[in-house]
Amino acid sequence: MWWKITSVVLLVYTIIAGFLVPLKSGIERVEPQAAQTGEQTTIRFFGYNTFFARPSDEPLRVWLYYNDQYALYAKTVRPLNDTILEATFSLPVNLPDGKPFVLLNALVDHPTAGASLLPAALTLRQADTLSAPLDPAWTQTPVEQLHVQKGFSFPYQNILYETIRNTYFHVPMWFVLLFLFAASVWYSVKYLRRPEPDLDRYAAAYAEVGILFGLLGLVSGMVWANYTWGRPWSNDIKQLMTAVALLVYMAYFILRGSFSDPEKSARLAAVYNIFAFASLIPLLYILPRMFDSLHPGATGNPAFGTQDLDNTMRAVFYPAIIGWTLLGFWIADLRTRYQRLHDRAMGVD
Amino acid sequence: MGRTILTFVLLMGISLPAALAEGNRDFMRETGKIYVVVATLLVIFLGIVGYLVRLERKLTRLEHQTKDDA
């Protein structure tokens, strides 16, 4: 009973915190996105959840940042409102390392909201080749003493914006699937060692609810992908492999249904379950890391490495996993209890 | 026929300029795509509720059956 209450408490926390915690300030884009050396230019910075018009005692500082060594400091900074500011730059006459063009990152430092960076915001081209020593503007006002935001907030990511909160809803579906399928194969193995019908009921119920969460994960992922990847289905490796995994588990139920003798069907299904669970290793664990993908954990990187999750997100993500998993087990428990009653009523037990 | 064309023209006249004004600015993409998060949660919630409704129906059927037998 306690674990069911815990599930509800954790999920209420997840939903409330998941929705109410604000995002960090970020820079959505700049305009114009290209410039030439030697120009005097005014660039507009468009912010998301920013507070340009409300700095405190300290001023806003704006850079076009190349690297730790070279950065261009804005001559003037004028906020038009909370989310748009205009910065004027005297662009230098040449570029570092004699490059024909460089990509500069937009960096805005706000005294209370902290520093925000937009990578590759502006392309700066060399107008005429000038091999003179590097314009001192690059090193005049280095980036230093950036402010850190006070307060709890989730990371800002371009394109994702608020949908980063889906990390607490879409991603845990897969953790629940893994835990439920693991419980299912556990009971299948127990059944093979001691053919008690109740063990088989647990195995089937865990598999069924596992499929439910897998479908929920797939559909919720498609909703998310539609507005961030551009299409609900892009033959992404994780999308494909999880669809295959769900088909493998649906076959488990087709297998169960194809035998009239319940003991035989339970035994064969238990053996199939072991292979089904084993198939999850290449499908969900190995193959997705081998291919390029927009999902975290592609091309050789481990899923959910240190770069994928902020500490602020972890504070909601871990409770979310536990909450959703306990809910999954609760639903599977109900399903098992139904099956027990059904079997008893039908005289199968 | 004429009324259909008129309705169509009026609708296009209102919606088309609005659609062209901002490229991909539809409701779901407003305010930082927060409604995508709402939609995701709704999908999950309705999916779970749907499964529970299915289970509820099976239970009710079983209860009625056992009541009839008893």
Structural account:
The complex is a heterodimer of chains A (349) and B (70). With 349 residues, chain A is of the alpha+beta class. Chain A has two domains: 26-140, Immunoglobulin-like (Sandwich); 161-345, no CATH class. Chain A has seven helices and nine strands; from the N terminus they run αβββββββββαααααα. In chain A, the strands form two sheets. Chain A has a five-stranded mixed β-sheet. In chain A, strands 1-3-7-6 form a four-stranded antiparallel β-sheet, with no helix packed on it. The longest helix of chain A is centred in the last third of the chain and has 35 residues, at 311-345. The radius of gyration of chain A is 28 Å and the shape is elongated. Chain B is mainly α. Chain B has one domain. Chain B has two helices and no strands. Chain B is elongated, with a radius of gyration of 24 Å. In chain B, 10% of the residues are buried. Mean pLDDT of chain B is 76; it is low at 15-23. At the A-B interface, helix 1, helix 4 and helix 7 of A face helix 2 of B.
Which overall shape of chain A is indicated by the principal axes computed on the Cα atoms? elongated
Major sheet of chain B: none
Rounded mean pLDDT of chain B is 76
- Our count of helices of chain B gives 2
Beta-strand proportion of chain A? 15-25%
